[in-house]
Amino acid sequence: MLQLSYIRENSAKVIEKLKVKNFDGAQIIGDVLKLDDTRRETQKALDDMQAQSNILAKEIGILFKQGKSAEASNLKEKTADLKLKAKELDEKLESTRKELDDLLVRVPNLPHGSVPSGRTAEDNEIVLKEDALIPAQGEYLPHWELASKFDIIDFATGTKITGAGFPLYKGYGARLQRALINFFLDQARDAGYSEVQPPYMVNAASAFATGQLPDKDGQMYFAQVDDLYLIPTAEVPVTNIYRDSILKSADLPLKNTAYSACFRREAGSYGKDVRGLNRLHQFDKVEIVQITHPEKSYQALEEMREYVASLLRKLELPFRIVRLCGGDMSFTSALTYDFEVWSAGQKRWLEVSSVSNFEAFQSNRLKLRFRDDSGRMQLAHTLNGSALALPRIVAALLELNQVPEGINIPACLQPYCGFTIIKSMV
User: Fold this and answer.
1) Is the dihedral of CA 210, 27, 8, 6 positive or negative?
2) Of the candidates 66, 104, 48, 30, the residue with the CA atom closest to the CA atom of residue 331
3) What is the rounded distance in angstroms from the CA atom of residue 214 to the CA atom of residue 165?
4) Side by side, which strands form the sheet with 246-248?
5) What angle do CA 52, 56, 60 make, to 5 degrees?
6) Where would I find the H helices in 356-413?
7) Which of 88, 138, 213, 407 is the most exposed place for a label (fewest CB within 10 A)?
8) How many Å apart are CA 423 and CA 401, to the nearest integer?
C-alpha cells in the first residue's frame, strides 16, 4: 500500500507513474486527497472540541470548590453537549478512515523507473539470454508423453483423487521432486538464507499484508469454516514473520528460504498452456525472501537475480531473463524479473521464477519498520523470488535430457536423486 503522505506530496507523479501499469489513477487519487482533507478537518475539529471539554472540566472543578454549584451545573450541560458532538465527529472520523483505507488498497504499487511501458508479455524486455544449450535439431517428446512413457507422473490418477491440476508423482518422478527441493534448499542455505518451514494456511491479515487480499482473492483456495487461506506461495507466511515488527538497522538484511506446497485456483486458465505440468493447482516451490534497508533493496534484487540464474546454470538449462512491462507486472511489485526456460518438447519458453522488489508497498501494510542509525523509524523494503518453482523445471529437464536409453539427470542433482538416468521400470 502506498503511503498516504507520499501521495499527498507527489499526487501528479503518482498518477503519471501508474500509467506505466495501465492504471488510470486520476479519479481514485483525487478521491483519496478529498477524503484525506475531510479526515484532517474532522480530526482537527475533534481535537479542538476535546481541548475545549478539558478546559471546561477544569473550570467546573474550580467552580465546585468555590461553592458555585449553579454555574458549575450550567457548564456541565455544555460539556454534555460537547461530548455528544464529539461522538458524532468520532464516528465520522472512523467512517472516513475506513473509506480512505478502502481506496488506498485499490491503488497498485508504483513501477520503478526502469520498467518498460506495455500491456502484455509480448512487451516485456529481454535483459539476458543464455540459450547455447537449446538443441539445434531433433524431435523431442513433450514432458506429459515422457511422464507416461516412464510412469513417473500420473495425471489421470491425480484427477481421479482430486481433480485436474493435481498430479500424482511416482517412482523416479517422486524422487526427482524430493531431490530438486533438497538441492534448492541447500543452495539457498549456502547463499546465506536461513531456512524456515512455514504453515501452509494463513489468516486474512497475513494475506492482506503481502497484497494477496483483496487483489487476488479469487485465485486463492479458502477454508470458509476456519476463515483461512491456502498459501499461493511461501512468500506470504515467510514475509509475515516480520509483520508488526520494529527491527534494528544492524539486523538488515534478513534472508529466509522456505519450501512449501503452493495452491492456486488458476481460474480462467485453459488450452495448451495448462497441459501436463504447465499450470497446476498444487505445486512445489522453494522461495527466497529478503527484508532490506531501502537504500540497498535494488542491490539485493540484482543479487537475487544472479542467484536464480546460477541455479539454472547448474541445472544446465537454457534460459532467459525478462524485465516485465507495466501491464504484465503484479499489483504489488515495483520491478520484476521473470526467468524462462526452454521447453524442447513444446518449443517455447516457460516461466519458472519471478524475482521482485516491492519496495515499501508490502511493509506499509505489514507495519514492518526499522530504526536507522540516527534512531529515525523507516519502512523496510521487501523482496522475494522463486528459487525455484518445480513443475516447469521438471518439464524442461525431462524434455531437454531425453535420450534413447531414458532421461539423463544433470550432474548437480545426481547425489540428491541417487540415480543418473530415468529408465522404464517395466
Assistant:
1) positive
2) 104
3) 24
4) 246-248, 369-371, 377-379
5) 175
6) 361-366, 390-400
7) 138
8) 12
Grid cell 460539556 is found at 79
Contact 377, 388 (CB under 8 A): no
String of DSSP letters for 116-149:
PP-SSGGG-EEEEEE-TTS-SS-----HHHHHHH
Cα atoms found within 13 Å of the Cα of residue 35, Cβ hemisphere only: 21
- pLDDT (tens digit per residue) in 337-392: 999 999 999 999 999 999 999 999 999 999 999 999 899 999 999 999 999 999 99
Q: Residue 52 is which amino acid? A: Q
CA–CA separation, 53 and 48 (whole Å): 9
Whether the model clears a pTM of 0.90, i.e. scores above it, the answer is yes
pLDDT digits (tens, 9 = 90+) for 57-98: 788 787 778 887 777 777 777 788 888 898 999 999 999 999
Grid coordinates representing 72 are: 458549575
Q: What is the dihedral of CA 95, 100, 106, 107, to 10 degrees?
A: 180
